[in-house]
Amino acid sequence: MQALQRPGPIANILRVTQTIHGERRISDEVMDELVPLLSGERAAFAGRCHERAISMAHLHLMTLLDAHGPMPMGRVAELLGTGLPTATGLVNRMDDRGLVERLRDADDRRVVLVQLSSGGQQELSALQATRRRRMAAALEQLSEEQRLILLDAIRNLRRAFARLDAEGAPTP
């Protein structure tokens, strides 16, 4: 898909805003809009997790296991940025709730792997589906033109982050 050309009215608004505020100010305005939006949605999502008795630590581990598959406890601790005792406590509580399960490594029976259980996968899928439905409902409030502009902007932002990552830019 070719890059979206800015429609006349949007380009005019952009030019006027740049003239009035300067390029740096537009970045500040974007951040002033984006940061509270993302924070508010994150808080609302945390509330939905809380309703299901899933902590942010649970969600983080469930997401990691979903993305990476079964992993040994040492790797769990490393990815969580915690010590092994803290990670073990978290896994114990999640195992008690049926969100994760332990299994032995087929190649080395001494190694215990942690994986997302079917119950944990169902919980994670339900939370993700709720988030997608909310996002879809908000996007439906926009016109087709606005959705196309937003899509183009998000793709450009993703590419910008990819360039920062490729350059090894520090992550605050």
Please tell me about this protein's structure.
The chain is mostly helical. Strands 1-3-2 form a three-stranded antiparallel beta sheet. The chain starts with 7 loop residues before the first helix and ends in a 5-residue tail after the last helix. It has helices at 8-21, 23-51, 56-68, 73-80, 84-96, 118-140, 144-167, and strands at 71-72, 100-104, 112-116. It has two domains: 11-51; 54-140, Arc Repressor Mutant, subunit A (Orthogonal Bundle). Helix 1 packs across helix 2 and helix 4 packs across helix 5 (84-96).
Largest sheet: 3 strands, antiparallel
Please identify which CATH superfamily of the largest domain we are dealing with. Answer: Winged helix-like DNA-binding domain superfamily/Winged helix DNA-binding domain
As a whole number of angstroms, the C-alpha radius of gyration is 21 Å
Distance between the termini: 33 Å
Strand-and-helix sequence, N→C? HHHEHHEEHH
The CATH topology of the largest domain, please? Answer: Arc Repressor Mutant, subunit A
Which CATH architecture of the largest domain would you pick? Answer: Orthogonal Bundle
Uncertain regions spanning at least 5 consecutive residues: none
Strand content: 5-15%
- Count of helix runs: 7
> Which CATH first-tier class of the largest domain would you pick?
Mainly Alpha
Instruction: State the domain count.
Output: 2
Helix content: over 70%
Structural class of the secondary elements?
mainly alpha
